[in-house]
């Protein structure tokens, strides 16, 4: 099992979606920043999620989509021009007692070179170092990256991310076939909120995933639905509303 407590609550990009003001703060904290990650830790979370992508000069920075304000693609600009925090800087500043779900956003250009030569190669030494200091989980939509990391980091759990119309009945066998440890399923891809009524109940899907040796991570349930996902047996939830979900689960 990846998580000591079930369901674990994982702060999405830190404290949440970047519109929440932590106690004692004067304004909302921007997501994927050290301030947001520390706010999640102060709220009592043991896990945070960060989104990582690479720049033109082969640095890893925190960002959840491929562009910055103005539409420039991060992969086309150097790290210092992006204004985004470096992954190594975040890890060095974050207390080692905080576990991290590293959501790796590979780029289209990664299709040209094997993962061992681009994003995967940049990520590997950072993860090897951090695995000695803290608990990690690595998730990605990119199965090629996950297969590469599986061979290089056998002790770090890996999870396949799914999104909207890619439902659990595809995600579970895909993740199991890749010999991964988890599936991270968007709430629009499963159970209560997927538009296809022919899907099995979420409880059944979670049970089958567990039989296949997979932890199930739901992202991003609304606070008022968090108890439903907990009752369905998910192992963790990546959440945008940290205080709301903690209150709903209490």
Any overview of this molecule?
The protein is an alpha/beta fold and 250 residues long. 31% of the residues lie in helices and 18% in strands. It has helices spanning 34-42, 79-82, 87-93, 119-131, 143-152, 168-177, 202-211, 226-231, 242-249; strands at residues 8-12, 47-54, 60-62, 99-104, 136-140, 158-162, 182-186, 215-219, 236-239. It has an eight-stranded parallel barrel with strand order 1-2-4-5-6-7-8-9, surrounded by six helices. It is globular and about 45 Å long. 43% of the residues are buried.
Q: How many angstroms separate the termini?
A: 23 Å
Estimate the global geometry from the Cα principal axes: globular
Instruction: Kindly report the average pLDDT value.
Output: 91
Pattern of helices and strands = EHEEHHEHEHEHEHEHEH
Oligomer: single chain
List low-pLDDT spans. none
What is the strand tally? 9
Q: Helical amount among residues, as a percent range?
A: 25-40%
Strand content of the residues, in percent? 15-25%
Enumerate how many helices there are, as a single number. 9
